[in-house]
Predict the 3D structure of the following.
Amino acid sequence: MASANDDETRLWLRLLGCSSQIAREINRRLRHRFEYSLARLHVLEALSASKQGVALSQLASALMVPQSNVTALVNELVKIGHVQRVTAEADRRVQVVVLTKAGRAILRRLRAEQARSLSALFLDVPREDIASLLMDLIAFQQAVSANLQLNSSKRRVARKRGRQSPAKPPRRRLASQSRSKK
């Protein structure tokens, strides 16, 4: 009989596997059609939200990658004219990265290709299943985030007291559990 830990490990590995498989295919399609990587697309997406530009350290934090990786990607994107480095308005000592007009244009094309790729990958998945899974993943993410905050708070309290105490997370019901009870 499988333990709860086995189920949790299998769930984590399944989520990683699905995410990796989808990312590999989108990356393959972007490289084939545009000679562009998914990592470059992520940089453009992160920059698209800001009109004033983003510092490399903030960009690295937003993408959850080392700053050296972001620097290399930004250097490539500067070279092809999709981003540029400019002096920050708020602090003239700081350089930020902004999308160029060409960067915004390629981003629109890359987003369209990504949407086409996802549609092709999910072609045989019923819309209701996608909606249901999305609801479950949102609830799952909220539960994980709450547990991280709870565990962080308990660790801080335990450090203050000089001992470690295991945190017991609150139980949350996923959308699929609610639907199956009906």
